[in-house]
Amino acid sequence: MSDLQKLTIGKAINLGLRRAMEEDPKVLIMGEDVGKLGGVFRITDGLQKDFGEQRVLDTPLAESGIIGTAVGLAVRGFRPVCEIQFEGFIFPGFDQIVSQVAKLHYRTQGKVKMPIVIRVPFGGGIGAVEHHSESPESLFSHIPGLKVVSCSNAVDAYWMIQQAIKSDDPILFFEPKKLYHSGAMKAEVDTEGTPDALFKSRVVREGTTATVVAYGPSVKVALDAATAAEDEGKSLEVIDLRTLSPLDLDPVFESVRKTGRLIALSEAPSETSLTSEIAARVQQECFYSLEAPVLRVTGFDTPYPPAKLEEHYLPDLDRVLHTVDRSLAW
């Protein structure tokens, strides 16, 4: 039986959190202003009113305290969901995440599980000040013991947050904040449907000229570029990674063997990044299928700029199309 609702990404996450809390009384939400305010992006709006202050907790402004408390709760059988208000605020909790959250299951030989979800609004495009528009996902994808995922649409947002909460492994859940309330990103979500597997990438548009792989907020850019390229007689295949660690690159390999070309797209800086890893793995697995080097379209290797410059920093449709032309000219 289907139950279709047209949702923004933000509303889909809200409904996913609500359903997880309804199904399991051990699910708790904690973070700065997540209760009465509903979070700065209103993603947890209404949850404290319906589930109470003991399950939706407004915390002090202390990310290390939020994560450390979540570790203690997880040890005692709870499933805490922590909200980091902006991605740039996560670093006071970095030590807790990489030294405790990522290691306790291994350190205890499986006796202690860490069913913790850390929600991280990330990326630019909202005209914010310093430390509010960064893309630190590569840092966490490098840490053994952590799993890292990122939704790009409302359907995935609804299902992936629930799947992450049900996982016994710690998961960082990166959310494209500039798309939270975008009307253009509204989609019909079957809230009684069957979701795709959490740690699998997906071909979201088929094509034959070149492959574009992206995740999070960059998937929309890739799809827009594919639509524009079609007017020029080019057929771009677009793949949404969905999971950043572990990387599911089999669909990427299969696509590259067909198209012979790959463009890896991300807002993050290019040095030692997820796009670097994708490029290395593809040349290793698909060397004889490549008609051109793997090319990347990324943010620049600088701190995120002031808001008036971010449109020049963020990868856009024109940069993707230019890179496709470079690949085809090789």
UniProtKB/TrEMBL annotation:
Transmembrane segments: none annotated. Keywords: Oxidoreductase, Thiamine pyrophosphate. GO terms for molecular function: magnesium ion binding; oxidoreductase activity. SMART domains: Transket_pyr. SUPFAM superfamilies: Thiamin diphosphate-binding fold (THDP-binding) (SSF52518), TK C-terminal domain-like (SSF52922). InterPro entries: THDP-binding, Transketo_C/PFOR_II, Transketolase-like_Pyr-bd, Transketolase_C. Its cofactor is thiamine diphosphate. Residues 7-182 form the Transketolase-like pyrimidine-binding domain. Pfam families: Transket_pyr, Transketolase_C. This is 2-oxoisovalerate dehydrogenase. It comes from Amycolatopsis orientalis (Nocardia orientalis). The lineage of its organism: Bacteria, Bacillati, Actinomycetota, Actinomycetes, Pseudonocardiales.
